C-alpha cells in the first residue's frame, strides 16, 4: 500500500513493479528538457496482482490530485482495469476491447484511460518483421504469456489493414488457466481470420514442447515478464527454436535469460533476435502523447531514442 501525498509540481507517474530500476527514471528528465515539459517523474511499485483496493486507491489519487498529470501502467494493466474502470470518465476502444489500461491521462477535466499496446507493439514489430513476412513464409506465432502485451500483439498482427499478410496460426501459452480463458473471451472474434490456440503450459518444459512444434520462419515472443518483473525464462536451456525465425524479448532490462537462450542458437538456427528497446521507446512516447497532449512524430522518436541511449 502506497502513501499518497499531493504533488507539489506537475508529476507524471510510472506504475510498475520495480520502477526504480527502469532507465526511464534517468531518461525522462532529459526528455522533459528536450521537449520543454514542465514535469517530474515518480514511480509507484505494486506487487503483481495486488488487491483491487490498492489499484482503486492509486487511480482515485491521480483523478483528484490537480498536479498529477497521468501515468504509464505496466504489468498491472489488466488488474487495474478490472479494479478501477468505473473511476474513469473515458476509456478508449482498445481499453474496452482488451480489458486493460496502460495510459492514464486527463483532458477537459476528465480522467481518461487508453490501451496503447496495440499501437506501440505494432510500431515495434514493424521495426524488425520483414514486409510480407506472413504471406511469404506462413510461419507460426508463439506468444509466451497471456497478458496485455500478447493480446495487443494478436490484435495488431490480425488487423484488417494488413490484408492477407497475417499469420495463419497464433499460439498463446500461459502457466495459469484464468488468463488464458480471459484471452480467449477477449480475442474470440479474431478466430474468423486466424486460428488461435490457447495452451496451458504450467512449466517451462511445457513451453519447450510447444516451441518444438513450430514451423520455420515463426515469431516467438517472451511476453511473460520473466527476465524483468521476476527472474528466469519461460523456456528451459534445453529448448529448441525453429530455424529461420524471429525471436523477440520484449524486456530491455533484467537478466534476459530468454534472449540468451536464443542467442546460443542464433547462428545454427539462423535466428533474428530483438530486445525490447524500441518497444520501450514507443511504449513511453505513446503514453506521453496523451498525458502531455502533444504529437511525437518519427523524427522526434529518433531524437528521444538517441537521448535515451546516451
Most strands sheet: 6 strands, mixed
Average pLDDT: 94
Unreliable stretches, pLDDT < 50, 5 or more residues? none
Radius of gyration over C-alpha positions, nearest whole angstrom: 19 Å
Q: What best-fitting shape do the alpha-carbon axes yield? A: globular
Please estimate the helix content: 40-55%
Q: What is the terminal-to-terminal distance?
A: 35 Å
Structural classification? alpha/beta
Strand content: 15-25%
How many DSSP E strands? Answer: 12
Strands of the widest sheet, in order across it, are: 2-1-3-5-6-4
- Count up the helices: 12
**How would you spell out the order of helices and strands?**
EHEHEHEHEEHHEHEHEHEEHEHH
Can you tell me about this structure?
With 310 residues, the chain is α/β, with parallel strands linked by helices. It is 41% helix and 18% strand. It is built from twelve helices and twelve strands. The chain has helices spanning 24-35, 52-64, 77-84, 93-98, 117-128, 133-137, 148-157, 177-187, 204-212, 257-269, 277-291, 298-309, and strands at residues 11-16, 40-45, 68-73, 90-91, 103-107, 110-114, 141-144, 169-174, 195-200, 219-222, 246-249, 272-274. It has a six-stranded mixed sheet, sandwiched between helices. Helix 7 (148-157) links the parallel strand 7 (141-144) and strand 8. Helix 11 crosses helix 12. The protein is globular. The two termini are 35 Å apart.
Features:
alpha/beta; globular; 12 helices; 310 residues; six-stranded mixed sheet; 41% helix; six-stranded parallel sheet
List the SSEs and their pairings:
Elements: E1 11-16, H1 24-35, E2 40-45, H2 52-64, E3 68-73, H3 77-84, E4 90-91, H4 93-98, E5 103-107, E6 110-114, H5 117-128, H6 133-137, E7 141-144, H7 148-157, E8 169-174, H8 177-187, E9 195-200, H9 204-212, E10 219-222, E11 246-249, H10 257-269, E12 272-274, H11 277-291, H12 298-309
Parallel strand pairs: 1-2, 1-3, 4-6, 7-8, 7-10, 8-9, 10-11, 11-12
Antiparallel strand pairs: 3-5, 5-6
